[in-house]
Amino acid sequence: MTQVKAKKALGQHFLTDLNVAGRIAATISRSELPDDARRWGDLPVLEVGPGMGVLSQFLLQAGRTVKAVELDTESVEYLARVYPDLEVIEGDFLKMDLSALYGGEFVLIGNYPYNISSQIFFKVLDYREQIPVVSGMLQKEVAERICSRPGSKVYGILSVLLQAWYDCDYLFNVPPGVFAPPPKVMSGVLRLTRNSRTTLGCDEKLFKTIVKTAFGQRRKTLRNSLGALIPSDAPIQQDPIMSLRPERLGVEEFITLTKAAEQYR
Questions:
Q1: Is 179 within the bounds of a domain?
Q2: Cystine design at 110: which of 18, 48, 229, 230 (Cβ 3.0–4.6 Å)?
Q3: Which residues of 139-160 are buried (b: 16+ CB within 10 A; e: fewer)?
Q4: pTM here?
């Protein structure tokens, strides 16, 4: 396997530890996926931000069909030279039409750049019918937020929106010393697997608005923060749920609020 000299570019800290890279690659293998997700273990893989290919080499070794999206030209040239079996696409992942890359389902993985990790996962929601499994490494704080449960101080917008469609599992911590240059924060590896939900049963755009509005004023009760969306004379205003703050609610409760708000639009 190839150990490379890493560099920092475009907000990314490059992983240099082969053991950690191997563990991350294994998170999408059939044997490591949850029982109800193993059918996705042989899907093609799209890797975001491969850098010098430390993760890519394990994916290729496992026999996966891999496409890698990389914005840094120097990295693209290196990958093309060292990993000829890797299809490298030079470009900005956030601006890509992923349906043009794959006609069907695929798995997403990466050592995600810290400065755009939240945007990457918001994009995942737009392609949730094509992406049944998402795995990889990002800043520990963001990974914990995605996987947190109602009642947690870090539970927020991304938690609710992703958990509406995915089972989210925080897998393990990664210390700064395995990167070059070392970041100032801990990293974490997570995995998202598509759940069985096919519809929210409510207006999805309004659902997002309810969630974002509630957490935009997370210190307020829902009765106060959602006043512009749910009138004071609405029946649900008498429900104890309205006296709660948003971090106390799960996906189903936010769906209930959305259905109540739909009647006044």
A1: yes
A2: 48
A3: bbebbbbbbbebeeeebbbbbb
A4: 0.93
